[in-house]
Write a structure and sequence with these properties.
With 134 residues, the chain is α+β, with helices and mostly antiparallel strands. Helices cover 31% and strands 31% of the residues. The protein has three helices and six strands. It starts with a helix and ends with a helix.
Length: 134
């Protein structure tokens, strides 16, 4: 069952607390739009100390790690037991948050659905985030 919109809105608000008002609102809108179908959404800390949003459902997972600065925010989505993820860059300079680019990237397989293997899902997010920061 997808996360309740009020719960997701609250979580998005927590995530964007340190961002400027305009960028914070845009990132909140992006998170509410892109994570609306997730069954579970969490704020997680990646190994580099970066806070990220991680969403999981019965079919796949997604994560976003942005500080609201820069031209875009990236959202990564992948299906469970897949070795590929879709990285999509959303334009933070425009209210409509249009897609700037997207590409397929590889990651280690093994994330499980909601209710199991959270560590494996976090591991995939860690790997994707490390590649993004290169």
């Amino acid at each position: 069952m997808p996360i309740h919109p009020d719960t997701l809105s609250s979580l998005a608000g927590q995530y964007t607390l340190g961002m400027s008002s305009i960028r914070g609102r845009r990132v909140q809108r992006l998170l509410k739009r892109e994570f609306a179908g997730a069954d579970e959404v969490l704020l997680v800390t990646l190994g580099a100390g970066t806070t990220a949003v991680l969403g999981r459902s019965t079919t796949g997972a997604a994560f976003c790690a942005t500080d609201g600065r820069g031209r875009y925010a990236a959202v990564f989505r992948w299906l469970h037991d897949s070795t590929r993820a879709l990285e999509t860059h959303f334009d933070l300079l425009k209210d409509s948050l249009p897609v700037l680019a997207s590409r397929s990237v590889s990651h280690p397989a093994g994330p499980g659905p909601v209710g199991g293997q959270l560590q494996a899902t976090l591991g995939v997010a860690e790997c994707l985030h490390a590649d993004q920061m290169k």
